[in-house]
Amino acid sequence: MERVRIGPYTLANPWILAPMAGVSEMPFRVLAREMGAAAAPTELVSAKGLLYGQARSRRYLTHDASENPFWVQIFGGEPEVMAEGAERAQELGADIIDINMGCPVKKVTRHGAGSALLCDPARAAAVVAAIVKRTGLPVTAKIRTGWDDTTINASEMCRRLADAGAVAVAIHARTRAQGYAGRADWALIARVVEASPIPVLGNGDVFTPADGHRMLRETACAAVLIGRGALGNPWIFRQLSTGDWSAPTPDERWQLVRRHLESHLLFAGDITHGIRRFRQHLLWYAHGLRGAAGFRREATVINELPALIALSEEFFLSAGGDSIARAEVEFDARAALG
């Protein structure tokens, strides 16, 4: 298995935590890296927000020293604004800039950003070129296969972005019109890999270690980005990076959940707000375990930290070592994915 190079950075393995809105904050990124993920880009950050010094946008770039390289994903549709936003990200520690060209959400696309850039490859390339010129940093992009089934243009996008200076492209193997429905088209990733002059990273429908290895084998992609398959399951990176596919023990599961909760509350800076934001993670950690429905009912109404810790400890330590059938996960994670 060849080691992946992103510009000057050589990744330890081909397993990467995909950037997810509302999920890829520093605490979860650090856990994923500790579990074995080779990299963990930030959630999408507004280039305009960085440019205008918005506190929320700058907060997204809070990172740990262990995040090396620090890979920041930004979004926007204007080349010069994106270049200036990328420069601000560089000043805040970014080692790699990733451009979001795949977000399907209307509040992003209506401003010509996210997957709207798929409809204008020339402008997408101009964004890459402007960032490369302004920062000198390695630039990557995360795209989809096309806007819809009538405009599949992932191969063209890869060529255009490579010519503009991009060092790698990640492909979520669905169109913008699909959202997260249907099946990811891995065969299309394989076709893009054959034609692309730069590394192609695959993304879409990787829920188990077997899925990850199958994507590498079937598409010949350079690396695999894992998104929904890592929700409540950062152990997937340990399984993939070590080859030991065993599930975590109840004690391992609880210790990691508690550590994630504690680091999340420190990051949030406010216990009430932190608990409210962490509930989604708790429910993902509980998914597929015995007694999850009852735990979910109680956990969603508790607002006091001691009570939430007590309930969670009892549940995770008694839920048993049931394997989570990640290949059959059907819960709707779209809200977390922006």
Task: Using the coordinates above, name the CATH class of the largest domain.
Answer: Alpha Beta
Low-confidence stretches: 322-338
Q: Spell out the CATH superfamily of the largest domain.
A: Aldolase class I
Q: How would you state the average pLDDT, rounded?
A: 93
Helix content range:
40-55%
What is the beta-strand fraction? 5-15%
Spatial order of the strands forming the largest sheet = 3-10-9-8-7-6-5-4
| Total beta strands | 10
Domain unit count = 2
Shape: globular
How would you explain this protein's 3D organization?
This protein is α/β, with parallel strands linked by helices. The chain folds into 2 domains: 5-242, Alpha-Beta Barrel (TIM Barrel); 250-318, Non-ribosomal Peptide Synthetase Peptidyl Carrier Protein, Chain A, CATH 1.10.1200. Helices cover 44% and strands 12% of the residues. It is built from 14 helices and 10 strands. The chain has helices at 26-35, 47-51, 55-59, 79-91, 106-109, 121-135, 154-164, 186-195, 209-219, 235-242, 250-268, 271-286, 292-299, 305-318, and strands at residues 5-6, 9-10, 15-17, 45-46, 71-75, 96-101, 139-144, 168-172, 200-203, 223-226. It has an 8-stranded parallel beta sheet. The protein has a two-stranded antiparallel ribbon with strand order 1-2. Strand 9 (200-203), helix 9 and strand 10 form a beta-alpha-beta unit. The longest helix is centred in the C-terminal third of the chain and has 19 residues, at 250-268. The radius of gyration is 19 Å and the shape is globular.
Task: Summarize it.
With 338 residues, the chain is of the alpha/beta class. 44% of the residues lie in helices and 12% in strands. It has 2 domains: 5-242, TIM Barrel, CATH 3.20.20.70; 250-318, Orthogonal Bundle (Non-ribosomal Peptide Synthetase Peptidyl Carrier Protein, Chain A), CATH 1.10.1200.
